[in-house]
Amino acid sequence: MSLFIPTYFGPISQYTEIVKSDAVVFEMEDNFQKQSYRNKCYIYNSNGKQLLNIPVKDKNKGTSQRKKTKDLLVDNDSIWQDHHLKSLQTAYRTSPFYEFYEDDLLKIFHKKYTFLQDVNIDTHLFITDALQISQKYSKTVEYLVDTAEPDFRELVNVKNQPKKQPILTFKCLMISMGLFLIYQF
User: Fold this and answer.
1) Burial of 9 by CB count in 10 Å (0-12 exposed, 13-18 middle, 19+ buried)?
2) Which of 20-34, 37-51, 59-73, 144-158 comes out lowest in average pLDDT?
3) What's the distance, Cα to Cα, between the start and end of the chain in Å?
4) For 133-171, what is each residue's pLDDT tens digit?
5) Are 42 and 20 in contact (CB under 8 A)?
6) 86 contacts: CB under 8 Å, gap ≥ 6
7) What is the C-alpha separation between 65 and 86, in angstroms, rounded?
8) Burial class, 2, CB count within 10 angstroms (exposed 0-12 / middle 13-18 / buried 19+)
């Protein structure tokens, strides 16, 4: 069992550890932190690195209460799904094998989500399916402070990515399935 936080098209460092794990447990009771891959990912297009960010609603805004990531609402008033889909299509539609994955991507970008965690779980399932990782996952019901199991929750933070990873990153992982979503660490 290894402990992870669900992310929006998670970084390659996370999937490197997921592949090595015998079982995946998603931390569902953590507090939301900015500067993390919980609601963002990066792709490359003809102009370079592009941020795709899911806007979220903070129902506790103006209070000192911490927000649990599982309770964070997706801001569907903005057209983030259309923007993300068009960005992916523009950047990768001519890539080999993209057409084989476009229908699955369309399901993600046409579905109306209420909670950020639901988007993250769906993108995780998309990637594991495309990479043919048949691993099941479970969810925590309370925050795990100390665990004897491998803990990879820090991989959710942009600043905690491994320092010496090649720039090839997510492109190398996804090239086998033909979808070129690219992260740079």
Assistant:
1) buried
2) 59-73
3) 26
4) 888 899 999 998 988 889 999 999 887 666 655 444 444
5) no
6) none
7) 36
8) middle
In the prediction, which pLDDT does 60 show? 65
DSSP E strand boundaries for the chain: 2-4, 24-26, 40-45, 48-53, 56-57, 73-74, 137-139
- Looking at residue 65, what is its pLDDT? 72
Which of 2, 4, 30 lies closest to 150, judged by CA?
2
Predicted confidence (pLDDT) per residue in 56-108, tens digit = 987 666 665 788 999 999 999 999 999 999 999 999 999 888 999 999 999 99
Burial label for 148, CB within 10 Å (0-12, 13-18, 19+), is exposed
Q: What are the Cα distances from residue 72, in Å, to 21, 39, 92, 93, 96?
A: 28, 10, 30, 31, 36
* Type of residue found at 3: L
Say whether 40 sits in a helix, a strand or coil.
strand
Which residue reads 């102009």 in tokens? 47
Token pair, residue 34, equals: 């900015």
Token representation of residue 30: 């953590």
For residue 82, what are its two tokens? 């259309």
pLDDT value, residue 140: 94
Tokens 């491994």 belong to: 162
Q: CA 103 to CA 144: how far, in whole Å?
A: 37
